[in-house]
Specification:
3 helices; Methane Monooxygenase Hydroxylase, Chain G, domain 1; mainly alpha
Length: about 110
């Protein structure tokens, strides 16, 4: 695999999951304000970008599984870290939104 393509894949992951994380945090702020409909829309947007980032990541896993050498880089490690932290943050924010709904009496 060319170094440039690994860099491009890394940046695609970082970009997509970074956008997903932004939408997740916006969803939390909407829920905090009692706007649960907007929060759900933001979570849907977040899911879209997270899936796109995950698809790019999965393409590397498929390449390695088929025998192609995938080089390790600090940039790629950062991309994977962003992917995993966004997934964790999204899970926690979904739980927090449910708590806000209970506090608000809408759930």
């Amino acid at each position: 695999m060319e170094e440039g393509s690994l860099e491009m894949i890394s940046f695609q992951i970082i970009s997509n999951v970074g956008t997903a994380k932004s939408f997740v945090m916006e969803a939390l702020q909407s829920a905090k304000s009692g706007n649960f409909e907007d929060a759900e829309e933001k979570l849907k947007e977040a899911d879209h970008y997270f899936v796109e980032g995950h698809k790019v990541h999965a393409s590397l896993i498929q390449k390695e599984a088929s025998g192609e050498q995938v080089k390790f880089s600090l940039l790629f490690m950062h991309a994977e870290d962003q992917l995993m932290s966004t997934e964790t943050i999204a899970t926690l924010v979904r739980e927090m939104i449910e708590m806000y709904k209970k506090i608000d009496g809408t759930n």
